[in-house]
């Protein structure tokens, strides 16, 4: 995918809530495809985030790089298609650190974040709310495992 809808919302919430975390962490988002590289998030994603009090307008899309598997301890994916694509790119040692974001954060077992790209405002707001839940779950799990 191109890194302009779901991932920026997930990154935005994780970064926004980072100050509340007892554990230091860094976040970044990337797409499995590079066709949107350098572009800001979709205007509808920016608007949904702003309605929720989070500014993601400064983010820029980028494609997942091999170095990301060394740079990050964890790679979280929005859906099974991206999970499969990321695992196919990952070195063997990193495959155990790749998971579905809603599952890993405890929001929904085997849950997927739907792609709102062909949807409307409600779809973007729904994904924004899921991103908030995922970020809350991320903080809880990081604190438990610290």
UniProtKB/TrEMBL annotation:
<dbReference type="GO" id="GO:0004725">
    <property type="term" value="F:protein tyrosine phosphatase activity"/>
</dbReference>
<keyword id="KW-0378">Hydrolase</keyword>
<feature type="active site">
    <location>
        <position position="6"/>
    </location>
</feature>
<feature type="domain" description="Phosphotyrosine protein phosphatase I">
    <location>
        <begin position="2"/>
        <end position="141"/>
    </location>
</feature>
<comment type="similarity">
    <text>Belongs to the low molecular weight phosphotyrosine protein phosphatase family.</text>
</comment>
<protein>
    <recommendedName>
        <fullName>protein-tyrosine-phosphatase</fullName>
        <ecNumber>3.1.3.48</ecNumber>
    </recommendedName>
</protein>
<dbReference type="Pfam" id="PF01451">
    <property type="entry name" value="LMWPc"/>
</dbReference>
<dbReference type="InterPro" id="IPR017867">
    <property type="entry name" value="Tyr_phospatase_low_mol_wt"/>
</dbReference>
<feature type="active site" description="Proton donor">
    <location>
        <position position="115"/>
    </location>
</feature>
<keyword id="KW-0904">Protein phosphatase</keyword>
<dbReference type="InterPro" id="IPR050438">
    <property type="entry name" value="LMW_PTPase"/>
</dbReference>
<dbReference type="InterPro" id="IPR023485">
    <property type="entry name" value="Ptyr_pPase"/>
</dbReference>
<dbReference type="InterPro" id="IPR036196">
    <property type="entry name" value="Ptyr_pPase_sf"/>
</dbReference>
């Amino acid at each position: 995918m191109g890194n302009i809808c779901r991932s920026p919302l997930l990154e935005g919430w994780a970064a926004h809530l980072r100050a509340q975390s007892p554990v230091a962490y860094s976040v970044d988002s990337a797409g499995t495809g590079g066709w949107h590289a350098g572009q800001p998030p979709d205007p509808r994603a920016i608007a949904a985030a702003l309605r929720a009090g989070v500014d993601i307008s400064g983010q820029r899309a980028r494609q997942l790089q091999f170095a990301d598997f060394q740079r990050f301890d964890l790679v979280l994916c929005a859906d099974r298609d991206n999970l499969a694509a990321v695992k196919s790119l990952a070195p063997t040692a990193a495959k155990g650190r790749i998971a579905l974001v809603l599952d890993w954060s405890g929001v929904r077992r085997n849950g997927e974040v739907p792609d709102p790209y062909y949807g409307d405002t409600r779809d973007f707001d729904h994904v924004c709310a899921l991103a908030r839940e995922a970020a809350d779950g991320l903080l809880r799990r990081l604190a438990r495992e610290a």
